[in-house]
Amino acid sequence: MEISQAQLRAEQMLNSSGIELTEHEIAHIEIADFGLGQLEVQGLELITYINTDRYCAKELVLFPRQTCPEHLHPDIGDETGKMETFRCRTGIVYLYVEGEPTSEISAILPSGSEEYYTVLKEIVLHPGEQYTIEPGIKHWFQAGDDGAIVSEFSSTSRDEFDRFTDPRIQRNGGSS
After folding, report:
1. What is the mean pLDDT of residues 32-50?
2. 29, 71, 109, 121: which could join 99 in a potential S-S bond, CB 3.0 to 4.6 Å?
3. Shortest CA distance to 73 belongs to which of 138, 166, 140?
4. Which residues pair with 30 in a beta bridge?
5. Cβ–Cβ under 8 Å, residues 69 and 115
6. Nearest alpha carbon to residue 65 among 89, 87, 91, 46
7. Among candidates 91, 124, 132, 89, which has minimal Cα distance to 106?
8. 174 pLDDT more than 90
9. Tens of pLDDT along 117-168?
10. pLDDT average, residue stretch 62-85
């Protein structure tokens, strides 16, 4: 899928969910394929509304069964890593964090990358539900069969410092 196609698809999902965007926001929908070349399987589409030295707000768009790979937000120098709250707006989101593994997870692990998904405590988010991820906690998430939109509210986002479990990942776009 080309970047422009993914941007258009993300815009359509946002519009159909009632989330209004400015022309500037539409033109700056970020596409993150994490250097894996599998955007439909492992990727993320996002809009950053604001990212200051105090806080950040984003919309995350996930196509059906699309997965944001496992990562964490480490401390940077003497600053605590990013804390983020995910609030599901549409669809279902399967979020995985550190803790007691769920016996049968709902997500489908991306083929060929299974070994890089190591945290399996499942949190299922439906529209209107939210979950806060503390700094330094490994996490990953996947949309259900209809895709999903998630609002992210967090401390400052420094995506270039995210630590991914999969060593093949290249930071070429946003993550959450």
Report:
1. 95
2. 121
3. 138
4. 46
5. no
6. 91
7. 124
8. no
9. 999 999 999 999 999 999 999 999 999 999 999 999 999 999 889 999 999 9
10. 96
Q: 10 Å Cβ neighbour count for 158?
A: 15
Helices (H), 17-166: 23-27
Rounded to an integer, the average pLDDT of 27-43 is: 95
Selection from 91, 99, 37, 45 nearest residue 68 by Cα: 45
Question: 123 to each of 2, 32, 93, 140, how far by Cα in Å?
Answer: 31, 23, 8, 11
10, 12, 14, 18 alpha-carbon torsion, rounded to 10° = 180
> 39-50: string of b/e by CB count within 10 Å (b at 16+)?
bebbbbbbbbee
Between CA 87 and CA 122, with CA 154 as vertex, the angle to 5 degrees is 45
Q: Which two tokens stand for residue 104?
A: 């049968």
